[in-house]
Structures are given as C-alpha cells and as structure tokens.
Amino acid sequence: MSAGNLARILDRRCADRPDVPGLHGEDGRSWTFDQIDLLAGGVAAALRAEGVGPGDRVACYLTNGPEIVFFLFGAWKVGAVPVTVSSLYNAAELAESVAKTDPRLLLVDDRRPDVVAEFLAAAGDAPPVRSVAEPLAGAAALPWRHEARVPAVDVAPEAEACILFTGGTTTGRPKAVSVTHGGTRESLGRLARVSTGTDAEGTAAPDAAPNLIALPLFHSGGQHSLLFAYFVGRAAVVWERFGVDRLAGLMDRFAFDNLFLLPTMVFDIVHAERDLPFAGVKSVLVAGQAISWPVRRAFEERYRVPILVNYGSTEAGHIAGWTGRDMKAGRWKPGSAGRVYPGVELEIRDDAGEALPTGSSGEVVVRSALTRGYVDDAEASRDLVRDGWVHTGDIGYVDADGVLFLVGRKRDMIKCGGFQVWPEEIEDVLREHPLVRDVRVLGRPDDRLGEIPVALVVREADDAVTDADLADAVVAYARDRLAHFKTPRRVEFVPALERSTTGKTSRAAAPLPEAGKAAAVSQEGGS
C-alpha cells in the first residue's frame, strides 16, 4: 500500500468511479467524486493564493457539514495541514487552539459570528482570518467556490497530515495531536483488512450504500470514518449533528447497511418512542467509549442488529475490536474490547516499561507511526511516544486468545458523549467563581453519555445563597465559559477535599457522592 498524500485517496476514487456520487448532504445536495475533486481543487487554489504551501497549518473553525470535505482535501492537495477546531468551542477555546498550533490561516464560516468577533477583538497577533461563506467583520471571503483540477503534491509518510484536539496526558488540558499521512493510511489499511479481508483500495461496488459519517469532522472518529469510506470506495453522508428524527430520515433515504455510532447515540435510539428503519442494517459499530450492557441489550433486543465494538485512539489508530465474522464464529467475549487486530504490535507493560506475560494487567502500549506527538507539549509527547511505541494510558490485559480486556486507565480524562473532557480545565474555570473555595471534578457513570463530569465543591459561606441556587449558578458559570460537553452535569457540596502531603487533591481519595450534600442540575447532553 502506498503511503502517499491522503489526497491521493480522492484521486483514486476520481479515477476509478468519477461519475459515482461520493458525497451527500442531509439537505438533498450531492456531488460525484469528480465534482468533489474539482471543488477541493478550488479550495487548493484559493489556499495557494493566500500563500499556503506544504507544511503550513490551516485552522478550520467550521460548522459540520459536507463542505468541510472540500477543505480537508483541498488543504491536503497542497500539502497543508488542517487544524480541525471544534465548532462547539467558544472564543477563548478557539484562541487557545490557535495559540497552540500557530496556523498560517484561520478559516471560519458565518454560523457563529459572535464567537469570531470576540476572538478577533481579543486576539492581538491572530493569523489572517478568512470566511468560507459570507464575509464577516475582520474576515474577508475566501474565493474557493470554483472548480480547478489540482493534483496532490508528494509528501513523506512521516509528514504531518492533520492536527486534532484530544486529551493525552495527566496534565489535564486538551492536547493538539499531530497525525501523519503514512500512519493514517496504515490505520485505514488495517481496518479495511479486518472489515473486508483486503487492504486494497476501492473494493466496494460502485452501487454500494453510502456510509453515514455520524461524528463531526473535527473529531478524529468522524474524519477517520470519512477517509475509510473513500478508501474502500463508498460515498459519505455528512450532516450537521445527530438527531433521532434526522437519522430516521437519512436511513429511509439511503438504506445504510452499516452504521458507526457513539454509545450516546445508541442510548437515544433505544429511548426514542419511534422505531427506526434498521431492517437493512447488518451491524452497528460502536466506538469512542464503552457502551453500557443494559443499553446494548435493549438495542439488540429491539432491532435484532448486533453491536460491534472498536478500540483505538487518535494517537494509536485502530487496535482491537469485533467483526461480524467474529460474532458468527462465536469468538465474541463479553466485557472485552475485542481481538487485537492482525498487524497490530501490542504489549502490556508494567510501570518500569517491561513487557508483561499473557493475562497480566498493565498499560496498553502499541507500536504506531500514526502520531508525531503533541505540538504544544514536548514533555507530554516524550511520555506518549517512546521509541515508536504509543503509550495509551489505558490499563488492560490480553488473554490466550489474543482478546484485549480493559480494566481502567491511568489518566483522569472523562469520556462524555464521546468527547474527551479534562477535569483540570473545568476546575480552573470553576475556581474563579466567588463562592467556590475548592473544587474537584470527577467522572461519574451515566447510561446515556458513558460518563458525566461532576463537580465536588467546597463552598464559601453565604447564608443568602442556598446550595440549590449555588449549584445552578456554578453550572451556568461553567456553561458561559466552556463548551457544553465540558459543563458539569451535577454539583455536589462537600466539607473538604482530602489532600496529599504535596498539597494535591487526589481523585481516588475524593468523597463519594453520598459523602456530601448533592445538588443535581439537569443538563442537556450529547455528542
């Protein structure tokens, strides 16, 4: 398998099925692979006119939708590096993302002009900002809506392909992880080999059902789903966001034969009053976090469609999972993360870095060329990648059949609705509230979201403010300053937080909910 520019995946689909629809929007628009290539070429030409070339980073703060496909491939065509910033971020989070990654250009749309305006007002040395839609104050329009045939430039396998925001260390702040062209293609080939029996490109029939890209394209799962669809030769359906009614409509329209969903989405499907048209769906792949057994059982009993799982990460790629063939052969083991995929070099190591024998628990470590580390934290990068081995931070063991079981994780990261939430970031914000003396944020199990952030708060005395009122105020305070998925879903008041001899509060030693007064606040969650 060639390890060239990711844009070559689109080149090959344009060559072997140019007139086949390759991209659909939920609004009825569609584009053939040839049209996608020409519009991506228009983006490439526009970026070159802005002085963007190989190795330059281009930050994309864009509402999820089919147009992002053109910007990803347009950037790759000229050898540029998309920095995919969550469209859920507020101005401060956008500014932090830009500061960490130092892009040559920032692309925005006209969906959140207030955030863009606030960002521009506060940013003294921001890169040039261009709107891909209507011009905004301080952001001239990028003229990309024209067709151009722009061949992809050559890049080295180890060249930076994209920057995605993820967790990654115990430092508690979101990390900007750099992934490579060659490592991404290797991961795609591995998943194709497991799914289809071959790592050859373009194996899907031209009339195969499209794949729904259920996760946003700023998310590693969404981006990898898009690339995988094109790698095997399927079209992609890209929407703005998940909704049960939206999903039902698209299922009627496109007759999907497989779906890749987050556990949050499966939860909503299970609890929806309406029945969805799953008749032609052969399997549902779930990744991003563990799915609770009651939700899985309820889904499979209702729709008679098996749920498969995939374990991996932005930094390490696809590591283990279950396929339909595994299920039919009776290889599935409850509670496992899946069989380690063929070609994956995986070791279970102890704290000293020594490989452990079969059945022993330790950190899951994988040899991978997918990531170059974190662009904003050299120390964390050295901890993540050591001699070509990615340290996942997950604790698990592999049994005699090559099946991986996860038993915990070294990191304190919370997986809320498929998004990675770092407690320290929330704590930094909540400590600014005048009635919060101390705070510790923990993850608590939740059937729908997997985990939810819960704030244990030591409050300042104020007889005029009840616990219930302060809980509402604390959540509102966080909501105004953080993306919605980072907002605590519950506030629990405790008299004190236990500290170590070094003065740090331990999450392991933090009081359980029943140890303090709890004030629950209902929050609308989702992915």
Automatic annotation (TrEMBL):
Location of the region described as Disordered in the Swiss-Prot/TrEMBL record: 498-527
Domain AMP-binding enzyme C-terminal per the UniProt entry, residue ranges: 425-504
Name used for this protein in its record: Long-chain acyl-CoA synthetase
Organism: Micromonospora carbonacea
SUPFAM superfamilies: Acetyl-CoA synthetase-like
Annotated ranges, domain AMP-dependent synthetase/ligase: 11-374
Molecular function as annotated in GO: acid-thiol ligase activity
Pfam families associated with the record: AMP-binding, AMP-binding_C
Bias kind Low complexity: ranges: 508-520
